[in-house]
Amino acid sequence: MVDVNTMIQRVAELRRPALAGGGVELFLDLTTDLRPTSADADQVQQLLVILVNNAVQAMAATPAPRTLRISTRLKTPRWLLITVEDSGPGIPPGLERRIYEPFFTTKSPETGTGLGLSIAHGIMAEHHGRIHHTSSSLGGAAFHVEFPIVTVAAEAPAGEAAPALPPPARPASARVLVLDDEPLIADLLSEMLQVLGHKPVVCLNAAAALEQVETGVFDMVISDFRMPGMNGEQFYHELAGRKPEMAWRVVFLTGDVVNEETKQFLDSTGNPHLDKPFQLAQLETVIAGVLCAKEAMADR
Questions:
Q1: C-alpha to C-alpha distance for 33 and 82, rounded to whole angstroms
Q2: Whole-number Å distance between alpha carbons of 224 and 144
Q3: Cβ atoms of residues 206 and 227 within 8 Å
Q4: Which of 10, 72, 209, 267 has a C-alpha 20 to 30 A away from that of 242?
């Protein structure tokens, strides 16, 4: 069971540094008569962060004041409505029909891959809800998300309180090198990292990734394991030889942890790994662990 208002407050706290950095003032208008609904909490958070990030990026080129407003209300006894609206330039005429298409974007390659709204649309389809947009009274775009209120989730046993949501975290913005030979996976991972407030740099082969590490500064590396040419294990050893301090900051992506050889390698390094497919919350947790370890090492 998900309390939508609580999720919005968590996302607002999570993105507060980015909002302040972009000169954006956030207003929450959350009705008190919403009932919890059965939903995937990770996906609801991902949806909200996508819409907030899109609004912040849309307002980047507009003069201050920049305003973001998130509101909730009970549309009918069986439907709840979330509205995310901004004071940006709005959606250009003629593009309204295309904004939910995968990889369609009006952003530069550095700021987006065009997957955000496509992911949001997919999340709402999975929840049997809908997402649509209108012009906002603030001057920009307004995205309206309608969730059906579902109350069939299993309840906690009598006398046992439902677990409380953990307090919102404030992860630092990290510069992350992404290595994957499949462009679709690399772009999707890049989009997920941007949703979490990080700055990805994508490479499609290990040689290009090593060049980036030699010339740039990165907080961590997320590398696929099975790649043509130099695979993840070979990349790790090459990286360790060139930049030993980066070796323990590599997170591996793998779909074959049942392979004994792969398992032995991962166990020998002690590096974290993500099994494909993974959710946004799992990615967020792994990144937070690497960044916390990096800070602890710096304090020694």
A1: 13
A2: 36
A3: yes
A4: 267
Q: Is the peptide bond before 277 cis (omega within 30 degrees of 0)?
A: yes
- Write the pLDDT tens digit of every residue in 147-166: 999 886 444 444 444 444 44
User: At residue 16, what is the residue type?
Assistant: R
Tokens of 10: 């968590």
Q: What is the fold of 4-148?
A: Heat Shock Protein 90 (3.30.565)
The CA-based angle 49-50-53, given to 5 degrees, is 80
Alpha-carbon distance 161 to 45, whole Å? 23
Within 8 A by CB and 6+ apart from 132, the residues are 143, 144
Q: Which CATH architecture has domain 175-299?
A: 3-Layer(aba) Sandwich (3.40)
C-alpha 40/C-alpha 83 separation (Å) is 19
Is 11 in contact with 48 (CB distance < 8 Å)?
A: yes
Per-chain mean pLDDT for the chain? 80
Please state, in angstroms and rounded to a whole number, the distance separating the CA atoms of residues 168 and 14: 6
| DSSP string covering 237-288 | HHHHHH-GGGGGGEEEEES-TTSHHHHHHHHHH---EEESS--HHHHHHHHH
pLDDT of residue 38 exceeding 70, the answer is: yes
- Other C-beta atoms lying within 10 Å of the C-beta of residue 220: 22
Give the helix/strand (H/E) hosting 7: helix 4-21
Report the distance separating Cα 83 and Cα 69, nearest Å.
8
pTM over 0.85: no
CA distance between the termini of the chain: 42
Break the chain into its structural domains and give their ranges. 4-148, 175-299
